[in-house]
Amino acid sequence: MSKQPSGTSDLQAIRRKRDMRRKTIPALAQAGPVSIWMILFVTLPMLFIIYISFMSRGVFGDVVYQFSLESYQTLLDATYFKVILKSLKAALLTTVLCLGLGYPFAYYIARKPPEVASRLIMLIMIPFWTNSLMRLNSWLLLFQTSGPVNNFLQWTGLVDRPITFIYTDGLVVLGLITNMLPFAVLPLYSSIEKLQKSLLEASADLGATPSQTFFKVTLPLTFPGIFSAIILVFIPSLGIYTVSDILGGGKVLYIGNIIKNQFGSIRNWPLGAALSVLLLVITGLLIFIYTRFAKIEDMEVV
């Protein structure tokens, strides 16, 4: 066999490098700014928070750059441990109620024609065009002692005296639900909308009842959307502090409130950083479970 001339092979190598350069430069131009932004404003701050969590607090609220596990040991204190458990329970309750309310609504929207579905999705988003403080304060006006809700209950004779709704855990959870409900509806709608109607028709043709079709066909196939909704609702509910600050009036404390106070008025940055790391760990664990779950689902579909 005759060998290819060296000049030809060199020319092919140059062409390959040129083609690779043509593909690489546009990719770097697109991913480069995003990568730089994520490194500067996400990765580095997270690493700094983790670093600070292993430091200690000085006498005047400054950070003493000396390795210490004091902040993580403080998390095991009864007071902080109760707040962490309370926050987890409130976030879990919010997530369950958002799923219970959001799934039927998302299913109803997904069964409608596209033009009707888009209008219903718009109705969900319209309240979020207003300032969140206005929406939260409106709950205070509705549920205050002399508010419309208490007046209606007394007028109907259901209660003899006004009920204390404001600055309670119940009102805070209500505020969390109204804030987080769209984050449950949207991924659920996306998952249900992709569901093939032929599968539901095949299940009915094989003699399955509507409830059997829902639990054995619809629910398993839409579980990725359910888990996405869980992540999008549970994680913000665990760390948000504006809702509990306004509707709780400073009497209802969750993890987010303590983190805000530690970085603000109390000036205990290491403890606030340790609580932030706890939220990062919970977030990472949920995302890890989701990625594992997504791989299993892909295998099952195939």
What are the main properties of this structure?
transmembrane helix; ABC-type spermidine/putrescine transport system permease subunit I; two-stranded antiparallel sheet; transmembrane; 302 residues; mainly alpha; cell membrane; MetI-like_sf; disordered C terminus
Structure description:
The chain is mainly α and 302 residues long. It has two domains: 39 residues; 222 residues, Orthogonal Bundle (MetI-like fold). The protein contains 13 helices and two strands; from the N terminus they run αββαααααααααααα. It has a two-stranded antiparallel sheet. Helix 1 crosses helix 13, helix 3 runs antiparallel to helix 10 and helix 7 runs antiparallel to helix 10. It is found in: Cell membrane. It is a multi-pass membrane protein.
Summarize the structure.
77% of the residues lie in helices and 1% in strands.
Structural class: mainly alpha
State the major sheet: 2 strands, antiparallel
Strand/helix succession? HEEHHHHHHHHHHHH
Beta fraction of the residues?
A: under 5%
- Outline, from the CA principal axes? flat
Name of the CATH class of the largest domain:
Mainly Alpha
Amount of helix: over 70%
Strand arrangement within the widest β-sheet reads 1-2
The tally of strands reads 2
Task: Kindly report the average pLDDT value.
Answer: 86
Write down the Rg: 27 Å
Amino- and carboxy-terminal Cα gap: 46 Å
